[in-house]
UniProtKB/TrEMBL annotation:
Residue ranges of the TM segments: 6-26, 47-70, 76-93, 124-141, 161-185, 192-214, 226-249, 270-297, 317-339, 368-385, 391-413, 420-439, 469-487
Entry similarity comment: Belongs to the sodium:solute symporter (SSF) (TC 2.A.21) family.
GO MF terms held by the record: L-proline transmembrane transporter activity; proline:sodium symporter activity; sodium ion binding
Primary role: Catalyzes the sodium-dependent uptake of extracellular L-proline.
Protein name per Swiss-Prot or TrEMBL: Sodium/proline symporter
Main location: membrane
Cellular component, GO, one term: plasma membrane
Reactions catalysed, as given in the entry: L-proline(in) + Na(+)(in) = L-proline(out) + Na(+)(out)
NCBIfam families reported in the protein's UniProt record: Na_Pro_sym (TIGR02121), sss (TIGR00813)
Originating species: Helcobacillus massiliensis
Topology in membrane: Multi-pass membrane protein
Keyword Transport: yes
Amino acid sequence: MSDLTFKLIAVGLYFLAMIGIGFYAFRKTRSGDDYMLGGRSLSPFTAALSAGASDMSGWLMMGLPGALYMSGLVEGWMAIGLTTGAALNWIFVAPRLRRFTEVAGDSITIPSYFDNRLGDTTRLLRVASGLVILVFFTFYVSSGMAAGGKFFVSAFGGEYWIGMLLVAGITLLYTMFGGFLGATYTDMVQGLIMLAALLIVPTLAIGAVGGPGAMFESVGQVNPDFGSLVTGATVIGVISSAAWGLGYFGQPHIIIRFMALRSSKDARMGTVIGVGWMVLCVLGVIATAMAGIAYFQQNPDMSLSDPENVVLDLAQIMMHPLLAGIVLAAVLAAIMSTISSQLVVTSSALVEDLVGTGVKLSANAKLWLGRIGVLVIAIIGAYIARDPESTILGLVAFAWAGFGAAFGPIVLLSLYWKRLTNIGALAGMVTGAVVSFVWGKSSQAIDAEQTTNGIANLWGALPEPLYEIVPGFLLCLIVAVVVSLLTKAPGREALAGFRHMETATTERAAVKDSTAV
């Protein structure tokens, strides 16, 4: 058989495995609450790996290795920021959010938690946050589908639209029927595939170049400053890259895993597993970039097709085509895990927080409306992604900043500050979303104008604008606090409810922890 046939077999087996897991989850999904939150039954291992896989997307398998290959560790500030942000998210948000969401009306979505926690009788906060999720994630989903189409063009030389529809169709199939559990179980498996690829490929490549010593020597000849975190960096660039970590506190498709844990105590083990997974993956990426530099320096007759393909090219050189096909599946896993999680969260917002606020739905109605919601959102996302020139990285960065700025401060304040009011939360959320949107669009327009006309921009002497999540997050936090202090304080009942969440829920969690398997 040809190399292409082996690769197609490997990817086909991966697709079948994902469908099989989705069918298994389908059999365990009995109600709308199961479909949207999995019955709060996730183990820390499943929650941690699924959160990591749904977060990293193709950036981990292609974007970061390519950046490190070209410029060195100075491109690693985003990885540092994301790893730090993920650890803080697990430590400070996961245990409290798990307890608070159960006590606050057994909330199964982030908007319903805001509504119940802050006693918003107007439902404006819930509807506004549901709309933010619906709009941002619909476009976010389309970026993942576009990435799938471009991957098939790069890996197999096929048609963009065929690859895009294939990735979208398989992901839709196991997500629509398996719901939250389908997305979570497949994400867990996909996380393991990604980790295996990022450990095996660099190990083989380091052996091929003569070991670690020979690798370091070759890297030093090609790029003496590879190990520097500051060479070629700017202050704004470092802040912007590291600030990606702020986004974790407000990403619905990540923090919903905290809500689905079996108990708050599981967050401790989830922290170890989740952060450990990220660290190992990042170390694997760094080793792959270095091994790639060394290999192509030692073999000048061979060339790298594209810096972002360093993982794929090394896999195809070092491994049997069938095993190389599994590495290709790892890249697909990174893309599809993100799409599936976003589809479920977006469908939940549509059914539970928009339709469900005005219509009383039965458990079975929620279940099937959730599936219909996934289908509708997937169709819209595929329609948006039909253009092969669809942007990916810029849209991902824009949506990440939007969620981080709009939701992040509100999540933290709701968990740790009893004085937060529904009006303050709404004002902060709107401010964060608007500032992130306007700042991001303004910086893109200014950069384009400067590139086209060579004229000075509003950022003065700065070589690049500040990532919009920084001003958006800070202003959301400030506005939420100021408006809450200027408006009527929560009543005794609300304050008592907050104290109950802090104390009584700890006791309740302790009972559950003692009986958790």
